[in-house]
Amino acid sequence: MLYDTHAHLDQRTFADDLPAVLERARGAGVLDVNVIGVDAASSRAIVALAAEHSKLHAVVGIQPNDVGEAQPGDWDEIVRLAAAPGVVGLGETGLDRYWDATPFEQQQDYFDRHLRLSQTTGLPFVVHMRECEEEVLAMLRSARERGPLAGVMHSYTGTAAGATEAIELGLLVSFAGMVTFKKSDALREVAVGVPLDRLLVETDAPYLTPEPVRKVKRNEPAHVAHTARFLADLRGEPFDAFAEQTTANAKRLFVPR
Ligand SMILES: [Zn+2]
Questions:
Q1: pLDDT band at 215, cuts 50/70/90?
Q2: Which residues are listed for a divalent metal cation 1 binding in this entry (predicted)?
Q3: Is 128 annotated as a binding residue?
Q4: CATH homologous superfamily of domain 2-219+230-253?
């Protein structure tokens, strides 16, 4: 049994066939799926989805590339939604220098809000990091000085040293389809070095479809099975043990309330 820890199932691309998508996930042994918010509206939609489906779990927050569009009151709504049934985490949050559409200080402000809310609610946070590893680690370090951290580096593409430090700070590291891509040798080396009890898998659907189904344009939770099998082979671990441990890790971090 597998746990897709990151999917954007509220997106329009899934509006017409979500039941079939979830059926295919079950068929692939993917029982639990975290559905991830990027702004107040999507977080609201996700809490509604989680209320309809017992195996869909809500993660609410404002993505770094979306914080520039946040309206007054949106953050208050995230705080309110964080207490809703079916919510298992906060995010996605973090920092992004790749798209460069949102002032960096504003991204840092919102990342800090998610980290503080995590520390007061006990809900884990989900970190998006793109081309700003040092800045993300710096904020995690200062948050750690305030208290323990619970969270995950999602769709990780950083360095081995960064993964090691994130783990030391209390986080888990999650890999998406990118690790299966031909050019991702450096990322594969990172993935081999993450202890199995700190590792998660995800699709980041509808993005990043893994090999060998990469030609499928819209990624979906069933495909996390490909990434999991790939990682198990890469690490020389039996698939069943890998699936069992990564699912247990996810359930330990993302606790429904
Ligand atoms: Zn995402």
A1: very high
A2: 6, 8, 92, 204
A3: yes
A4: Metal-dependent hydrolases (3.20.20.140)
Residue 257 has pLDDT above 80, yes or no: no
- d(Cα 141, Cα 206) in Å, to the nearest integer? 31
CA of 229 to the centre of ligand 1 (A): 21
Strand pairing category for 125-130 and 2-7: unpaired
CB atoms inside a 10 Å sphere around CB 237: 15
Please give the sequence-ordered ranges of beta strands (E in DSSP) within the chain, or none if there are none.
2-7, 30-36, 56-60, 87-96, 125-130, 151-153, 171-175, 199-201
Specify whether the CB–CB gap between 24 and 218 falls below 8 A: no
The CA 208 to ligand 1 mean position distance, Å, reads: 10
User: At CA 181, angle to CA 97 and CA 192, rounded to 5?
Assistant: 85
Q: Residue 100, annotated ligand binder?
A: no
